[in-house]
Amino acid sequence: MYDLGDPGLQVDQVPRFAYRWHTAIANDFAPWANDRIDSQKASKLTTDNVSGTEWPMFSAVLYLWSTEALQENWETNPQFSKKAPKDYAKEAIDAAAKLIIDPNNASWVKAHWGSGYLHKENLFYRMLLIAGLTSYQKLSGNNQYEEVLIGQVTSLSKELDESPYGLLDDYPGECYPVDILPAIAVLNRAGELLGMDKSDFVERSLRAFEDDRLDNRTGLPAYIANSKTGHGYGPARGVGISYMLIWAPELWPEVASAWYGKYEEHFWNEGSIISGFFEFPRNSGIDSFFFDVDAGPVISQYGVAASAFGIGAAKVNNQQQQFYPLATEALVASWPLPDGTLLLPRLLSNLADAPYIGESALLFTMTRQSLYPGSNNQVEHKLPYIVYLALVFYCCIGLIILRGSIKLVRSLG
């Protein structure tokens, strides 16, 4: 209830509660990451275990991205935390970088691509490798991985540029534009750090999201594409468009603005009780209830991952009328515990292999900032009814626990 009044939910700044979330994850992230490296657990997993193989590295990158955003915000608003995020989270930052560079953690992509996994396609893994090492070097000032970083930035941007349609596969025969777009943004950011001008590359890379690569019905990038023919398959999906719209404005602002308008038209739903982004376009006829490893739970068409990443997409694109309801809904749905754990994101994670993916993803999306500062929409901030219902639910649970405790004390007396 206190966090619902955070000024960061209504103005263009990072919510203050993000620092508390970040600190809570930092306390546990380093021991978990170091244990995973030392145990070589990743080398024993099969390629069928998508969440167990992909999510540990993704959670490390999401945490580093969040740390980078909080550090930049803290340098302007040091009153938000007694210590700089890069200082109090130093152990977590170091451990995240070690996990990202760990060769055992790459066992699943080695199984797909063989010994050339760092030099041929394998876009998702290489994008995360570049992203994590870029954030690590920015935060730590340590250039120990710079040689690897330069090699990957040079080779991956060259390979994308020379591909027929600006597309590369994540796994053999599997190409997902949702990973191509952030890869372009990551390469551009790494180029800025390393003094490489990637502006021409960025301009040319828009071809990956034009023509046959678009979903005809919505005009948005298709979720799956054929990297060899340049043809997109199936409809656009909420989880993909939300995530891409976090990155698109820093690459192609006008294109991003047009995409957001189409996304709002076909996917946004503002109900009387709950608001959010659908996983598939409105009236698509696709199942209203299902679960998959990318979208998470889809409930009455609303995509949990689509709406979670939609928080960041709305903030970056300066769409306060979507950001506020999504952020407040996520805040109460997170079910914060006294030790700082966010219960629902933790339960939606892979508790055995990637316990912090949910919390790191929510922290990442909450720490995005508008690329158009000072031009926030003037909207009326109304809490969705689901927020009030959730608070009533929490109070009822609390009263039940309190009543049980009182009965226990009386029985002991």
From TrEMBL:
Q: Which InterPro entries match?
A: 6-hairpin_glycosidase_sf
Q: Which domain of life is it from?
A: Bacteria
The record lists the membrane-crossing segments as 385-402
Keywords (A to Z) from UniProt = Membrane, Transmembrane, Transmembrane helix
Record-linked SUPFAM superfamilies: Six-hairpin glycosidases
**Name recorded for this polypeptide:** Linalool dehydratase/isomerase domain-containing protein
Per the UniProt entry, what species is this protein from, by scientific name? Answer: Zooshikella harenae
